[in-house]
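Lab notebook, design round three. We kept the backbone fixed and only want residue identities now. Task for the bench partner: fill in a sequence for the structure below.
Input structure tokens:
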């Protein structure tokens, strides 16, 4: 991938466990994604309010303060993204 060209896809990785978040982020960047990281659900909601579009969101459901289920209830983008459990 050309280092000067913008990444074609954007991802948001939401996980309160630093090693897990960093591992997922590294894998996505290795595949050419531009990646934003959120340290918990509150951080994720703030990022989603500022930037409405991500091509991929990787979400941990068990987090402090605001869990992943509450993040999922955030107003969806148009068109809505498909949800897949992994």
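Proposed sequence:
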């Amino acid at each position: 991938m050309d280092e000067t060209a913008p990444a074609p896809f954007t991802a948001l990785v939401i996980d309160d466990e630093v090693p897990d978040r960093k591992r997922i982020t590294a894998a996505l960047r290795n595949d050419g994604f531009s990646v934003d990281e959120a340290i918990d659900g509150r951080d994720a909601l703030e990022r989603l309010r500022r930037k409405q579009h991500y091509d991929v969101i990787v979400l941990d459901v068990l987090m402090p303060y605001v869990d992943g289920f509450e993040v999922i209830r955030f107003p969806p983008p148009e068109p809505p993204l498909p949800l897949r459990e992994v």
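Keep this in mind before ordering anything: Residues 18-30 form the longest helix (13 residues).
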